[in-house]
Design a protein that fits this description.
Blueprint (H helix, E strand, L loop, with lengths): L2 H11 L2 H46 L8 H4 L16 E3 L15 E5 L3 E2 L5 E7 L4 E6 L6 H7 L8
Antiparallel strand pairs: 1-2, 2-4, 3-4, 4-5
Helix pairs in contact: 1-2
C-alpha cells in the first residue's frame, strides 16, 4: 500500500495497525526533523555567543556607547570566522553603554530579527543578554514575544 492508501484506510477505519505502519514509515523523518531543530537552536546559541563576545570586547576597549551595528563589532570577531557570520538574522537592539546597566541579566542586546516556526507549530526567537547569557523563547504566535521583550528591551542608556 502506498501512503495515500494507508492514510485513507486509517481515516475510514481508525486502525491501529495502519497507524503503526505509517509511524514506522515516517518515524525516522520525524526524528531527523526534531534533531534538525535542536541543531538550529544550538547554532543560534553559538552565533549569539560569538557576537556577544565581540560586542563585550568592543565595550571594554571603547569608553563610548556599545556598537550600534555588527560592522562596529566585526573587528573583534575571531579572524578565522569573520566572513562566515551573516548579519541578516540578528539585530543589535540595545543602544547605550553596557557598563552603565544595573541589571544586565535582564537586558536584551541582540535579538533574532524574525521568529522561526518549529515543527510543533510554535514560534521561537533567540536573544543575547548584556550579562552574556542567551535564551530561546517559544510562543504560540509571532506576536507572543511582546511581553518578554517589553520587560527586557532597553533601547537607550546614557553613555556615562
Amino acid at each position: 500500500m502506498d501512503d495515500l492508501e494507508l492514510l485513507r484506510e486509517f481515516a475510514t477505519t481508525n486502525s491501529e495497525q495502519v497507524f503503526a505502519r505509517l509511524v514506522a514509515r515516517y518515524s525516522d523523518l520525524v526524528h531527523l526533523a526534531a534533531l534538525r531543530q535542536e541543531q538550529l537552536g544550538i547554532a543560534k546559541m553559538n552565533y549569539l555567543k560569538t557576537w556577544m563576545g565581540a560586542i563585550t570586547q568592543y565595550a571594554l576597549d571603547k569608553s563610548t556607547n556599545d556598537p550600534s551595528d555588527f560592522e562596529d563589532a566585526m573587528p573583534y570577531m575571531p579572524p578565522q570566522i569573520r566572513d562566515k557570520f551573516s548579519q541578516d538574522q540578528f539585530q543589535i537592539v540595545f543602544k547605550g553603554n553596557l557598563k552603565t546597566l544595573t541589571n544586565p541579566e535582564r537586558t536584551i542586546v541582540i535579538a533574532e530579527k524574525h521568529p522561526t516556526r518549529t515543527s510543533s507549530g510554535n514560534w521561537v526567537r533567540a536573544y543575547g543578554f548584556a550579562d552574556g547569557h542567551f535564551e530561546i523563547h517559544s510562543a504560540p504566535t509571532q506576536e507572543g514575544f511582546a511581553g518578554c521583550e517589553k520587560e527586557r528591551l532597553i533601547t537607550t542608556v546614557s553613555s556615562q
